Amino acid sequence: MPAPDRMLTHLRQAAALVRATPGRRGHTVALENCTEALVAGDLHGHVPHFQVLLKTADLANHPTRHFVLQEVIHGKFRYPRGGDKSHQLVDLFAALKCQYPGQVHMLPGNHEMAQWTDRPVLKADQNQNELFREGVTEAYGPAYGPKIYAAYLELFQTLPAVLRVPNGVLISHSFPAARYLPLFDPARLERDAYADEDLQPGGSLHSLLWGRDTTAEAVGSFLRKMGCDLLVSGHIACNDGFAVPNDRQVILDCAETPAGFALFPADRTITHAELVACVRTI
């Protein structure tokens, strides 16, 4: 575990670098200097999967390859006193963002949003938000734990909601259900700060991160609103590590084994079939 004061510095630097990411507009990023993208599925604290993904990304030898993480918190790994270890992946992201600021990105999922808006997520009768907070204190102690926890919340609020790849692929944790699509306004994601209504059920960010609609009609409508052709997303558990629910979307999941990720070209137009062929599993 890194020294608490050093970790706090890394987290604050990472938040500043997220805000300064090239191509950023509000909470959206159009990836620049990007010829390839490696996108992970939901990690939920799975450090071993992250380590494999990082080795595969090989960022030092591929300076135009971008590495995208999503939904890293609220996992099954615990400290001896019961706290959630998933904050370790936030720490790893922060360190990596400081090392490769233009190449490394993290998308928030509904779990990160629930944590920073203080809306409890319950699983097996356990409050995932409290377990996360307890894990931070267990790792960093009562003196630094609250400071580091506050830095996590600041980082979560700063993260981009969507990434646009140069070839028309959109990377988003999910997309709004059909009933919310008529009200969904992509321009609200381009603001520097979210309005309270964006965070409420049916609001632009809430519906973007919580939607589970995978119909071809809904994803097509969403992509038209976003001005993109294909979608790489997460949010939905996949027994095989990935799923292909329609001809515009690929869903990735890294929380269990097999864990799915996609490494695809970003500097040329690709078909859905080519995108699917770029999916790999751990």
From TrEMBL:
Coiled coil: none annotated. Its EC number is 3.1.3.16. The keyword Manganese applies. One of its GO terms (cellular component) is cytoplasm. One of its GO terms (molecular function) is protein serine/threonine phosphatase activity. It is an enzyme of class 3 (hydrolase). Pfam families: Metallophos (PF00149). Keywords: Hydrolase, Manganese, Metal-binding, Protein phosphatase. Residues 38-237 form the Calcineurin-like phosphoesterase domain. The keyword Cell wall biogenesis/degradation does not apply. This is protein-serine/threonine phosphatase. It comes from Frigoriglobus tundricola.
